[in-house]
Amino acid sequence: MSFGGHQTHLPDARGLADLAVLLANPGTEVHVGTLWSGARTLTELGGGHDAVLDDRALEAYKQQLRALEQELQEAQTMQRAERMDALRGERDLLAREVRAAVGLGGRKRGLNDVSERARKAVTARIRASLKKIAQADPELGEHLGARITTGAYCKYEADSEPAWTVK
To answer: Is the pTM of this model over 0.70?
Structure first.
């Protein structure tokens, strides 16, 4: 890799290959399926379609979160610090469960969902490669870390058209 007049050599890694695709296509959202297996869409990836939480369970969680928020406000009013801590812990645990079951835009995550596994795998290997890059070349690591986004779609957002040579 070459950046800012510095050249950095790193051992081959799938995360570096993912980064190479993103760098070769600045400003373009690339689906994780493309990076993970060459699939271009969620349909091509396939996988489980049963939701992690059904509608009733999700609504029950949301109602419980609303009730916890109300109890938390009452505990604050009564200045019951110990009760507030317990309620915050319960609220945070429940919120994590809801976040694990629901993706961006309220889309329900599927059980054994291949696209979710692809998202996690690609994100992990890109982050691992960014960490190695930052150790070898902090300036390049900072540049990429600020401009690479991951999720169901990954993207490298350049400030201007960089003169990357991807090998």
So the answer is: no
